[in-house]
Amino acid sequence: MAEQEASGLQVLLSTLQSSCDKDVILNILSVLTDLLSLGTGRRIHYVVSKGGSEALLQALATAARTEPPDHGTLLPLLRLLARVGQRDRKFGLKVQKAEVTDIILSLTRRDLGHHLHLTHCLWVLRVCASNVTTGTMLGINGAMELLFKVITPYSKRHVRTVRAAIGALAALLKSKSNSRRAVNRGYLGELLRLYQDWHRNDVSNNYIYIRRGLLLCLKYITNIQLGRETFFGSRGMEILFTSVQDCLSCKNLDPIINTATHILRKCYPKEHLPVVNVRSSYSFPLPGNVNAEPPCEGSEDKWLNGDSESEGEEETEKDWDNEDVESKEEDCDLETDVNKMRSRSVLDRPEQELEKYEALCAELSQNFQEFELESEEKKSLEDRTENLSSAPSHFIPSATSVKHPNCRWRNQSVTEMGPDPEERGFKVPLQSWRKKEECIWDKNDEKRDIAEETQDKGFCEEEDPARSHVFALCSLPKDAAWYKKMFYPPCEGNPSPGGRTESSDVARNLLEKHQGDVQFHSPHFYAARARCVKSIPGYRELAFPDFWGHQPPPYSKPLLERKHGVQRDKVLDDIRRLIQPGDVIGRTVFDLDDPSLSSPAAPGCLTFSSKFESGNLRKAIQAREFEYDLIMNADVNSNQHHQWFYFEVRDMKSAVPYRFNIINCEKFNSQFNYGMQLVMYSVREALQGRPRWIRAGQEICYYKNHYRCRAAAGGGVRGRFYYTLTFSIKFPHKDDVCYLAYHYPYTFSTMMSHLDILEQNRNPKKVYWRQQTLCQTLGGNPCPLLTITAMPESKNRDDLEQFCSRPYVFLTARVHPGESNSSWVMKGTLEFLVSSDPIAELLRKCFIFKIVPMLNPDGVIHGNLRCSLSGDDLNRQWLTPSPQLHPTIYHAKGLLYYLRSIGRAPLVFCDYHGHSQKKNVFLYGCSIKETLWQAGCMVDTAVVTEDVGYRTLPKILDKVAPAFVMNSCSFLVEKSRASTARVVVWKEMGVLRSYTMESTYCSCSHGLYRGLQLGTKELEEMGSKFCLGLLILHLKSLPCSKELMAQAALLLDLEEEITDRAQRRCSNSSLESDDEPPCAEEIDYDTASSSDGEEEFLELDQEIQECLSCVEGETEDEGVTTGQTCSSRALRELYISSQPAPNSTALPLGSTALGLYSGFQRSPV
Ligand SMILES: [Zn+2]
Predict the structure, then answer these.
(1) 3-state class of 596 per DSSP?
(2) What are phi and psi of 542, to 5 degrees?
(3) Cα(885) to centroid of ligand 1, in Å?
(4) With contact defined as beta carbons under 8 Å apart, do 30 and 1155 qualify?
(5) Residues forming a β-bridge with 730
(6) The pTM of the whole model exceeds 0.70
(7) How far does the centroid of ligand 1 lie from the alpha carbon of residue 910, in Å?
(8) pLDDT tens, 330-348?
(9) Residue 160 Cα to ligand 1 middle (Å)
(10) Alpha-carbon gap, residue 526 to 614, rounded angstroms
């Protein structure tokens, strides 16, 4: 069948190769021209697949042999070759095979004086050169010298020929050896001169394509180190930079500006980051001293000599022609070994070790004998707190607020913590875990001892945190008038001699002013908790926002619209530092490694600070008056993981846009390129009753910069490049104190004080709440474990049995410290779970919740992005966690092992995360079948059986949670994720519903929140809706009592809720992929990147077309003789007769008029 279809075309092609009859050849060319003139790529690819290129090349070789050359045949032949060749990926090889490179060169040489002929030759030359090897061969044989004879300074004559020559030259320069040859012959300087000349003279912008063509030549030639150096030495930077300034005002010059900017970025000399050492400013001695990496020495070089971009690639030419580059990379990571995915019961520790986890499941052995006593005791308290406890959650089902809990204290609150004599009026409540932690962990545990020993050695000098330092609250400057007025009435003004006000006074005065209107937050609790935190730098400051609290703004902010050319403008402004250094200051104003710089900065300069919980800013350099370069600190004991920032800035002017550049980002792209803003908190605003983080920053973009990582520190491919996040901010007030962060901060102390408040707020008659310490972290901080369920209905046996037999749900969060959004989601979950919302009450009767709200307290405290103090990503340690290095993971897994060992493995496990590249909230789960299908493996359904119950919860969430999108979920098991919580809990604990829940930092692509940036309110809502989802899951999947069903039916108008959401979603839901479209501007400027592709094809097609349609009007055409077209009809008929039926897949000739190019074929004179 296929042969039949092709036969018509094949007859034409074989006749073309074998015939010597000029008329026949001409007519075949005419038919082919018509066939391809409708010109979609598909037709050409079809002709190529039938041997079109070879036939045309053969015909060219024959035609070129005739003396004198017959241009009547050659011209249509060359045009066809140009159009077919550029879409034939193996064209270069075919050219070599047919030995036509010399033929083309000699035709070009001979036609130098005839511009129309020459133009045709140049098109083919360009196409041949798109293969690197063929291009190199052409270069060796003098093609570039030839082209430089054609490319002239500005002239209105023969511009088509000049354009074709520039196109060919650009193609030749893609070969690195051609580029080297060109540089050595001085062509780079020549190209710059030509470009300047065209730029200067083409005032009406008539020849944009010529100017851009010259820039493309420069772009390719500077792909080699020698090219970049020569460009730099020839003042290329100044020349292009100046020319771009002239173009900026004209929007249709974008192609020129963009190409020039690309070259400028590439040739900007590479530098190391301006830090002595890229390793974190904070280091932590590990128990057993494992993996002590040597410090990385700073380099003396100002400029980097070798450019890592092209290292090792310089000499090798890449030719993709012979490879079928089909990317299967993504699927490579999928686990295809069924046995590795099957649930297996292994233990990574001796079985008897599990016994100690019994203490963390006290609910299973509790007989509630003390229950009544306790509740009697609490009776009086209850009365006072009744309205508090009965306030329903503010997300489900209605928005009712919970009043501030400051007024309530349990009597025993003060005892164990020890009151702080310095503090007045507030206490930290009792922590049941204080007692627990002593009994759970055996003092003889050797491994613990090692860890403790290290901690004792100089890490935390002060054993008793309560007696520790005076805590400073963002040390407000005493000269700030607004502040003095607000906190220091004249008689009391009592600044310390040091020039800074006594911080405890500040705190006290502030607390007196606090309105207490931030839900579930208490500055008293916060300050008390913060005092107990152990940190490497020994934090002595509180960040105001964490202390004072955050109240979500009443409105949601839409995504920031990207301004046209914003990145280009910023990049050019960066380059201006090099070209016009007059206003560059370059003064370091803050440096973690040099504390002398951290005090008030020079006049007219911002003051920075980051030495507080979750703070991350290592260095600030004032680049220009209102521009600062900022460097983030690496994770402790690491030299990478830069993304999270959180710092304080003060001494600002108002109404001035400050530009900030965070110059050591690592990810290859960012949601900052897609409308996401950072967050800002203004102290003045807070004190005026608007205590909130808001999305802020304008002119935001994210792009690769000129900083390179030192090879020794790069750790392989990762971290070789750095990216800049740039934004500008107009601060709302003069002399304010503001905080800027990557995302809404949520510190360890925030979490601890939140737990305090929740414990206080719960209704102890109804909510079983137990807070214990899972373990101590490496840094000596407690990792809390919560148990939440409903109190048994009564002490009778049935009720106690029901209490004990509730299935477990195990939730964890914040293993990655930079993912503060996961903590906000967890906050929503916790508040809902202890609330008196009837749905929450029902849910508590269904499950026992085990929750580790922060798996990585140390990382959070130190402002890390990803790791713990050991420098390890804790979510890659679940297979074999080390009790010394990864205690929180080791014990969380131990507890899960214990639950499994008593037959109580959780029904649902979910680890809350944040996703920095994607929109929406979604789940990752695990499915053997979906993984095998995705990997293209055969699935024997008789052997591989799988419960599809893992899909139920995400389906429910898709319906009940507005931020959640089922389409974004994935259930694939990747090899690279084999040691994550999700996969290990699924496999080793046999938990079918084991998930990672990813929350965006940015926005949603679907549903209610589409186009809006998520705030803490939406994140918290997600946490509470997750709970609702669990209840529905329970109703759907587990046998439950009639009573429960009836209650549920009353509470949840499920049908309505579900259809309502589904409809809403349907209206704007689509099957679009969740991945971002390519960025509006190129983030990267790799030497390999170029605009090759369909666009370039279209350019050449258009060039040919334009040339043909104008050729008649041009004077340069001096008589093209052509042959007859008399027999074309016969041939056409032959062709048509052999065509398949019109609806087949082959190419119908259609009704196009033949002889489209008759202008060429008819002799004009
Ligand atoms: Zn994560």
Answers:
(1) helix
(2) -105, 135
(3) 19
(4) yes
(5) 657
(6) yes
(7) 12
(8) 668 899 888 888 877 789 9
(9) 56
(10) 14
